[in-house]
Design goal:
With about 300 residues, this protein is of the alpha/beta class. It has 10 helices and 13 strands. The strands form 3 sheets. It has a 9-stranded mixed β-sheet with strand order 5-4-1-6-11-8-12-10-9, sandwiched between helices. It has a two-stranded antiparallel sheet with strand order 2-3. The protein binds 1-O-phosphono-alpha-D-glucopyranose (G1P).
Length: about 300
């Protein structure tokens, strides 16, 4: 029996990336504000986190991300105008995006030195407690939010946990990859972890997806960590060091569909998929999709 604290209430959300894959859109709009249907990308991550019991958020930002700070603040003029015109439903939607004062902190990562470095930048706001890391580019749809599934599993296991998913063998170079040990239903004990191995070198095709539950020892490791893959300080390497030190690390095969919204194709797939799931958009969009697929086939 252990007395370690297994309640996860804080999340680090790295949002410092330049979003160059979406230029010119991201020239003046942070990537995280780009919309999937009518909600910014970041809102999906926040809703998932709040459903998992996260109460405090630490955003690791960079220059040009002030639209994100405004987004989570109250909008008194807009709210008053909606109230006056009796648009109660919209007002509720708007108010659900506000975060209480003090529930969100913003830390600057002043150089793009990698995901491990971004997480390390938040170290002073994490006490001796487990914390989540959420990468908002990975949008995961499912009946139970991915992070909630993980928080529940973590209450049983402790250690460190990463969301995991099989990827095609030729895509391992885009992910952190687990060296797979013992398998227990959805949990996999990790024997090792490598950042972006080439197809021939990957220990498996079980990839890390952007949801993590970590313990403060990872932050200590990051203190002195050197650059790894791509010349960046990698979170994967700090987690691998946990394994090497004999601490338990698990992959969690989550239930749900993951969209890589860091890529244009993934962003479009998520847009279509979330729109089809919306009763107000479903019929018109599915009729349109059927029609263009049909016309497309005829043209082939
Ligand atoms: C990051 C991590 C990688 C992980 C991926 C998941 O990579 O470094 O280990 O598999 O997120 O989306 P990035 O996509 O930022 O290059």
């Amino acid at each position: 029996m252990t007395n370690e604290n297994r309640k996860v209430t804080k999340a680090i959300v790295p949002v410092a990336g330049l979003g160059t894959r979406f230029l010119p859109a991201t020239k003046s709009v942070p990537k995280e504000i780009m919309t999937l249907v009518d909600r910014p990308l970041i809102q999906y991550a926040m809703d998932e986190a709040r459903e998992a019991g996260i109460k405090e958020f630490i955003f690791v930002t960079s220059r040009g991300k002030s639209a994100l700070e405004n987004y989570f603040d109250t909008a008194p003029v807009l709210e008053a105008s909606l109230r006056e015109s009796g648009k109660t439903e919209l007002l509720e939607v708007l108010e659900s995006t506000n975060l209480e004062s003090g529930a969100i902190a913003y830390i600057r990562q002043n150089k793009p030195r990698g995901l491990g470095h971004a997480v390390w930048c938040a170290r002073r706001l994490i006490a001796n407690e487990p914390f989540a890391v959420i990468l908002p580019d990975d949008v995961i749809a499912g009946s139970k939010p991915c992070l909630k599934q993980m928080v529940e599993a973590y209450e049983q296991t402790g250690g460190a946990m990463v969301a995991a998913m099989e990827v095609p063998a030729d895509q391992t170079a885009s992910y952190g990859i687990l060296d797979v040990g013992e398998e227990m239903n959805r949990l996999v004990r990790a024997k090792g972890m490598v950042e972006k191995p080439s197809a021939g070198e990957a220990p498996s095709n079980l990839a890390v997806i952007g949801r993590y539950i970590l313990t403060p020892s990872v932050l200590k490791t990051l203190d002195g960590q050197e650059a790894g893959s791509g010349g960046e300080i990698q979170l994967t390497d700090a987690i691998a060091a946990e394994i090497d030190a004999g601490r338990p690390v698990y992959g969690f095969r989550f239930e749900g569909q993951r969209f890589d919204c860091g890529s244009k194709a993934g962003f479009l797939q998520a847009t279509v998929s979330f729109a089809l799931a919306r009763p107000d958009l479903h019929d018109e969009l599915s009729a349109f999709l059927r029609e263009i697929v049909h016309v497309g086939r005829a043209a082939e």
